[in-house]
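Cross-check.
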Amino acid sequence: MSPPKLKLTVKDLTVHYGPKKALGPVSMDVIDKSVTALIGPSGCGKSTFLRALNRMNELIPGCTVAGEVRLEATDIYAKEVDPVAVRRRIGMVFQHSNPFPKSIFENVAYGLRIGGLTKKSDLEPRVEQALRRSALWSEVKDRLDEPAMKMSGGQQQRLCIARALAVEPELLLMDEPASALDPIATARIEELISELSRDYTVVIVTHNLQQAARVSSRTAFFYMGDLIEYDSTDVIFRNPAQAKTEEYVTGKFG
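Predicted model, tokenized:
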């Protein structure tokens, strides 16, 4: 049996905020077309690690990143690599939905327009495809010109997923995408994550251990800025190698 294809390779990644080390060094591989969950208590470095995977930390004053992150053959931190191009290949969905004050259609078309696609006849099929992939098309196809802000919270979050998918990224980062949603909307997002993993590589930060167990095939446990353990989700939750991992997943702290 051939080894799984790697989408992302991280080596000795460290992140500092000013003089304070927030993360690392972290080394891990992310398998293509899979869901990887990042778990750990608040402030342990999960979101910092996630943002380092598409150079979002560079937008924070005083933040420095060292080490290597490879998206297949591309070292995303190489000097000649444009961070905007990186973020097109590695999309991101945040904890709180952040639709733009525009129509549903224009929210999804936004990144495409920035990329140079301006004719509506070219935009329409791409917008429809993204809305279908985010399991939203049937709910909004007759009201694409309505303001996105009128949508429910769960719909807004799926709209943000559609907006990220419209530019056809290779990898999708999700920072607690369901934490602000009710249980029904959360279940819908979890179903969507499972569906997306057939075509995309997904890395998700979650505080919800049950959610990590439900949606991911591999899980990484972070604590105090360090990667403590990274293995299949079954191993992490049923037979972890590290005592600290077992303490966290069994609720002894966190």
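The chain has one domain: 6-249. Strands lie at 6-17, 20-31, 35-39, 63-71, 74-75, 90-93, 171-175, 201-205, 218-223, 226-232. Passed to J.P. for a second look.
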